[in-house]
């Protein structure tokens, strides 16, 4: 599955990083504690969080994530979008809560690393 497929299937909004929409998604991870995400999320994951600050992009680059989804109607600030754009990290938003989206992605076969 590609990031583009997730965008289309779940109605996610692309905030930044359109150049990365063809990245392969192999896993999913849901969490907001950055150190936990760094320690446990796998490469090529789609990471679901409620955070919208610049550090989420740094974590996504460090762990080589396919994309970051900001859930619960939260939106990234301009600086975060600019950083995601520069790094080619798809930054997506979802109006529903993280649990709901994580459950749907798990149902698609995206398990934990």
From TrEMBL:
Homohexamer. This is DRTGG domain-containing protein.
């Amino acid at each position: 599955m590609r990031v583009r497929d997730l965008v289309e299937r779940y109605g996610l909004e692309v905030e930044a990083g359109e150049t990365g929409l063809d990245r392969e998604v192999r896993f999913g991870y849901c969490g907001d504690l950055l150190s936990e995400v760094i320690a446990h999320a796998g490469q090529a994951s789609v990471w679901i969080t409620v955070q919208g600050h610049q550090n989420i992009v740094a974590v996504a680059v460090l762990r080589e994530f396919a994309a970051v989804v900001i859930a619960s109607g939260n939106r990234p600030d301009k600086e975060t979008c600019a950083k995601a754009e520069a790094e080619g990290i798809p930054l997506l938003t979802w109006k529903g809560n993280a649990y709901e989206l994580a459950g749907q992605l798990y149902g698609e076969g995206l398990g934990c690393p």
